[in-house]
Write a structure and sequence with these properties.
AP-1; transcription regulation; bZIP_sf; 0% strand; Basic leucine zipper transcriptional factor ATF-like
Length: 125
């Protein structure tokens, strides 16, 4: 569509005042503020990405630890089954379990300690 030359269009251009020093200063502040905001947003996105990466690495590490602990649980469970089986097969043959307990004096033999060099009445018999 061709551009028509209206008198209202041309008058609007001629009526607008030339940019003042104040306007250009405001424009500069806007540009600086936008640039500062752009940099801040960029830094924020970078921090967010780094945090996500750190969480991902931590998650992978925890998954490895979890797998290792599950393997250890499995191994210990198998070991417990083995020892339980050994105990079950040993119990009927065990002489300690089938005989009466020995008298306490056999278990705890009386010992006399002779200490002639101690002269205190507390240590004498």
């Amino acid at each position: 569509m061709p551009h028509s030359s209206d008198s209202s269009d041309s008058s609007s251009f001629s009526q607008s005042p030339p940019p003042s020093k104040q306007d250009s200063s405001d424009d500069m502040r806007k540009v600086q503020r936008r640039e500062k905001n752009r940099i801040a947003a960029q830094k924020s996105r970078l921090r967010q990405t780094q945090k996500a990466d750190t969480l991902h690495l931590e998650s992978e590490d925890l998954e490895r630890q979890n797998a290792a602990l599950r393997r250890e649980i499995k191994q210990l469970t198998e070991e417990m089954k083995h020892f339980t089986s050994m105990l079950s097969s040993h119990e009927p043959l065990c002489s300690i379990l089938t005989s009466p307990p020995p008298p306490p004096e056999v278990l705890y033999a009386t010992h006399t300690f002779h200490q002639p060099h101690i002269s205190s009445p507390r240590f004498q018999h």
